[in-house]
Every structure is written in structure tokens, then in C-alpha cells.
Amino acid sequence: MEYRCFDNTYVVRLERGEELTACLLQLAEAEMIDLASVQGIGAADHIVAGVYDVAEKQYHQQTFSGAFEITALAGNLTRMDGKPYLHLHITAADPHHGVIAAGHLNSATISATAEIFVVVCKGRVGRRADAEIGLNLLAF
Q1: How many domains are contained in the chain?
Q2: pTM above the 0.90 mark?
């Protein structure tokens, strides 16, 4: 991972073989980022994405392996229990231009590169576990 900071924005480039979420958490720790918006594009060969079922209070995850374009990566970075917390969603396309993965991103291994912008916001927003919904919600 390489990155540069311009004003309040980190421009991040991930390399082949790097795991996207681990790199962003590493960036947040190294740069002490408490609150940010995340967006990006790239290519991956291994993606784990899930869709949350509120009634069951669990994610239904699926693993995808192959050649994929990350057409949209969006989400945020906050803190929970003092540690960086990512909430990212992804949409990825297969070689036939079909969407193969969409939903909450658990992990993605980069196959070529990824270009990610992390826009830091002034302030701090935490997370709290919500027993009724079963998710870690924003805590102001």
C-alpha cells in the first residue's frame, strides 16, 4: 500500500495481493483517523461479501473467486472501542459485465490495483452494539 495526504484526503493505491480492509485499517491506525468517508475502484480476485438479514440478525456471506472489477466501493470509517471500524459496501463485475458481488464487504484481495480515496472529517463518531437490530450502529 502506498498513500499520500492532500488536505483532508488520503489517496491510497493498493498493490496486487494486498487485502483491502486490512490495508484501510492499517492506514487508520497509522494516521490516527477517527472519522472518514471511503470510496474506490479497482480489481480483485477474491471477494467475501454479505447481505444482512434483520430477522435472523446475521450476515449471509458469499465468497467469490475469479477476475473482478470493483466498480464501486463506498462506506465509512469510524471507531469502536478505540479501534478503527470499517463499514464498506462493494459492487463488483465479472468478465461478462455482470454484477457478481454486491453488499457488505468483509474482504477483498487485490488482483491488479485499487485506487481508494479516504476523506477525513473533523470530529469523532463511535459505534455501539444494538441488540434489537443486531448491528453496530453509529453513536454520536
Answers
A1: 1
A2: yes
